Structure formats: C-alpha cells, structure tokens
Amino acid sequence: MIRPDEKIRELCRAVILETDRLVLRPLTLDDRPALCAILQDDRTMIHYGGAFDEAMTDAWLKRQLDRYEAFGIGLWAVIRKSDGVMIGQCGLTWQPWKNRQVLEIGYLFNRKYWHLGYAAEAAACRDLALDRLQAEEVCCIIRDSNEPSQKTALRIGMKPQDGEVRHYRGQDMLHTRYVLSRRLCEGQEAQRERKDHET
To answer: What angle do CA 111, 115, 116 make, to 5 degrees?
Structure first.
C-alpha cells in the first residue's frame, strides 16, 4: 500500500489546474449526472467492456473521493470555462502494473466533446506530476484497441514502453503503458531552449 506524503496531499488540495479552456477540480456528489452521461454510454465505454450500471457508476465516483482522501490525487472533473459544463474527467491515480504501483494520467470525456483537443489539454496534469510532485515518470495505461487515447498519449510526449494483458469484466484486454519521464521532459526543454537561442 502506498502511503501518501502529507506535503503532496496538501499540495494537491491547494492546486486548481487551469488551462486556456478548462479547469480541473475535485469531483463531488453533485457531478453524478454528468458522470452518468459518460460512464453509462456504450460508445464512450467501449474500451471498458461497455456501459456501467448505476452501482458501477456509484462505485467509480466513491473510488475517486476515496483517492482524494487517501492520496490527495485522483480523477478530477474537467470543466469547460466558457459555460461551466463538466465535459469529462482527467487526473492522476496510482495503478498496479507488473507487481508495482505506477502513477497514471487517466482521461475520459463525454463523447459530445471528442476530437476537440480537450483530452490533451487536460492532460497538462502531467506537469503537476513531474514538476510539482517530482515524480520520476508518469504514464498512460491504454487498451490496444483504443487508438484515440493512444494518439493523445503520443501528443503529450509519451512513448510506448511495455504491455500487459488485464482481465476486466470477463474479458482479457491487452494494454500498453505509454511513459513520459521527468528526465526526458528536461531534455526536451533544454533542446527547445537551445533552438530558441540559435534563432
């Protein structure tokens, strides 16, 4: 069991992640209707083995609230600034991977808002993991059939590293772990600075 560092928990409680178009904040019980629109939609949940029922939706929301309390992180509500609508969820969670725990960026959006760049924008929480929390690496664990999520992971600088078959809801599902390390980010930033200096 991971024991969260108090400093990390306080930091996460204090942070409101904001991008040009989005705000990420903790989920609340009031977000259940917006969450149902995501989790109970067959097309959205195709890579999770299909739509969730009421009990599974409630368990999902409770798990996020429990994560906030235990670790100070979890999947957060993604709010569109232009109208205040919750369009999805994105955040950081600890996930089991080959007998260890890894820090993952997860993102799942209402399909009304797909293909608009929101997932990649919300995944700026990678910077929270690498810069603010000083994680050595952050990853996305993605089912092999989920090409849109794979493209998002690549877009935010991740690279496929290793795979694992997971048994979920009666199915064997091959997943690939896409990884971005803090060292790689620092190297990319140094390279950009050199190019800026040259021009």
So the answer is: 105
3-state secondary structure string across 183-199: HHHHHHHHHHHHHHHHC
Mean pLDDT over the full length of the chain: 86
Q: Residue 195 has which token pair?
A: 């190019």
Instruction: Report pLDDT digits (tens) over 8-50.
Output: 444 444 446 889 999 899 999 999 999 999 999 999 999 999 9
- Other beta carbons within 10 Å of 159: 13
Question: Taking Cα atoms as reference points, which of 85, 80, 40, 87 lies closest to residue 60?
Answer: 40
Instruction: Supply 175's token pair.
Output: 């997943």
Helix (H, G, I), strand (E, B) or coil at 165: strand
- The pTM of this model reads 0.83
β-sheet with 75-80: strand ranges across:
17-18, 22-26, 75-80, 86-97, 100-109, 137-143, 171-181, 159-168
